[in-house]
Design goal:
Blueprint: E1 3-6, E2 17-20, E3 27-32, E4 38-43, E5 48-52, E6 61-66, E7 73-79, E8 84-89, E9 93-98, E10 104-109, E11 117-121, E12 127-134, E13 137-144, E14 149-155, E15 160-166, E16 172-178, E17 181-186, E18 192-196
Antiparallel strand pairs: 1-2, 3-4, 4-5, 5-6, 7-8, 8-9, 9-10, 11-12, 12-13, 13-14, 15-16, 16-17, 17-18
Length: 213
Amino acid sequence: DGKVQICPLDQKVQPLQIIPFSDKLPILSVCVDKDEEFAFFGNSIGNIRVLKLNKEPNKYKFYLTITEHISAISHIDCSTELNLWASASIDGYINIYTLTLCKLIRSIKVPTNKCNYVFLSSSPLPAIAVITEENNISEIFVYSINGKLLIRHKEQAILSCPIIINDLNKNDYISYIINDSVIIRSIPTLIRQVCVDGIKHIYAIYPSEDMRI
């Protein structure tokens, strides 16, 4: 119904803050930058609302509305290291914006018709990882920040729970679940680093904060 709820972990603070958007359209993607200064909300017609946050949940401010996409927003990702954020829409477009001014600097059309996920990677090289799903096949595309396609990899199944993880040297890897396996690939090369096979009913993967587990 176009509402977003902010729930503090500390229940001694205000227990709930509801942010209503006037168009009442479904919110399909939410992202908050690491410094918790901006929040991004993508809806079902391709608009992205940007809010400036405050340490107190009820003191947010509407910043602006992004209208460059023309179809539903499937995923949003931010990178404070690159000072960028990226949005993916289901018609196959990736838009890259500056983090503070939200200025559009680049739009990328992937070869397939649908984008499901977009991730910004800063180490060892700045890159954009895109995951698409079509006809029960998944593909991972890696682009340079300038929009050049560096590599693509195809999986003969739909992958789930994709996340970006780091090693102790802060190098980025993309990790996901597919066919009872957990696969970890380096970015930007997509070389497979780890594969754990034969574990049924995996629903989620998540790294510890120190990246040791």
